[in-house]
């Protein structure tokens, strides 16, 4: 999975990652590399550098083996290290895999499998690492790469002969991740009717329509039918959706004598009562001592950047995870969870 010369160079320069060290040598002054665990690291193309050196390129079967190792043995395995460190290692090595794929103009079923596994990993990471400090996880960089992988994967579905048994799963993930995107919607509507009529894509279309119509109640109710990975793809839109709900209700129920039950609002937002009250106050919506919400269109204000922590409001996704292991999630998550 790593060119021999690169392994020797990184060994000499003491640039081996924990996950690549030969067991028993980790505490040595200069740890040794384990050829069975070392993975080619990403190297930015530089002027005058020959990036197509044949001995440094891994053929498609080796690239697939590498991705399987990164997902199954690193990302999905229990680790003594924080998952941010696991993510950083896997993300970098997947970039190197992508680089080799592009140079070789890789296509075919191996290409599709690699892209599918990578997309699952990045979508899960976008949920699990949400709210982490920027020095540990940058959501914009993750999003940029995820969009590139998704675009490449969907293009493979359109241009390469199948079968593609996971196409329904990833078409729906793409739409849920890109709610409101005209491009994502157009791509979905151009799919064959047979594919558009499948349960996952139909549900994604319903949720996208609710998002476009600014109907947060319908969107949140429909989101309960999603499986865990689909909810991970959707989760970045949930704060906007809940904000819309509070804004709409602040206008619709704005009256001096009107009181809205907190527990009923909590059910609409799919949060517990304490988090609902906290969210309301963040937007200037009053919650009185009797656990009643006092909506006022004049009092509604958007909180300052960084004051709301998205991770606190992940209950829709966390309830679906339950007994799922990371390995279950990253291998496949096509079965819809029960409510």
TrEMBL record:
Organism: Neolamprologus brichardi (Fairy cichlid)
UniProt-recorded name of the protein: SAC3 domain-containing protein 1-like
Residue ranges, compositional bias (Basic and acidic residues): 1-43
Entry GO CC: centrosome; nucleus; spindle
GO biological process: centrosome duplication; spindle assembly
Any Pfam family hit: SAC3_GANP
Sequence segments annotated as region (Disordered): 1-59
InterPro entries found in the cross-reference section: SAC3/GANP/THP3, SAC3/GANP/THP3_conserved
Domain SAC3/GANP/THP3 conserved positions: 1-288
């Amino acid at each position: 999975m790593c060119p021999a010369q690169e392994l020797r160079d990184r060994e000499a320069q003491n640039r081996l990652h924990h996950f690549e060290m030969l067991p028993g040598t980790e505490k040595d002054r200069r740890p040794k590399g384990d050829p069975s665990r070392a993975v080619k690291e990403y190297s930015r193309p530089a002027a005058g550098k020959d990036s197509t050196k044949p001995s440094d390129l891994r053929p498609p079967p080796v690239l697939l083996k590498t991705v399987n190792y990164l997902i199954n043995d690193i990302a999905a395995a229990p680790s003594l290290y924080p998952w941010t460190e696991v993510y950083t290692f896997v993300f970098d090595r997947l970039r190197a895999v992508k680089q080799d794929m592009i140079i070789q103009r890789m296509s075919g079923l191996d290409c599709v499998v690699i892209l599918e596994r990578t997309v699952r990993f990045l979508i899960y990471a976008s949920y699990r690492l949400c709210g982490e400090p920027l020095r540990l996880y940058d959501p914009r960089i993750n999003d940029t790469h995820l969009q590139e992988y998704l675009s490449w994967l969907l293009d493979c579905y359109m241009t390469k002969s199948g079968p593609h048994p996971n196409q329904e799963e990833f078409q729906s993930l793409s739409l849920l991740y890109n709610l409101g995107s005209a491009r994502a919607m157009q791509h979905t509507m151009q799919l064959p009717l047979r594919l558009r009529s499948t349960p996952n894509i139909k549900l994604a279309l319903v949720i996208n329509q609710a998002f476009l119509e600014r109907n947060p109640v319908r969107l949140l109710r429909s989101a309960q039918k999603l499986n865990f990975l689909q909810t991970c793809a959707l989760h970045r839109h949930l704060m906007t959706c809940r904000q819309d709900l509070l804004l709409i209700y602040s206008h619709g129920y704005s009256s001096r004598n009107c009181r809205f039950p907190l527990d009923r609002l909590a059910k609409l937002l799919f949060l517990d009562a304490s988090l609902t009250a906290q969210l309301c106050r963040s937007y200037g919506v009053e919650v009185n001592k009797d656990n009643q919400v006092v909506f006022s269109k004049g009092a509604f204000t958007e909180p300052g950047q960084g004051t709301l922590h998205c991770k606190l409001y992940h209950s829709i996704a966390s309830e679906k995870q339950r007994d799922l292991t990371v390995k279950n999630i990253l291998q496949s998550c096509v079965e819809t969870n029960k409510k």
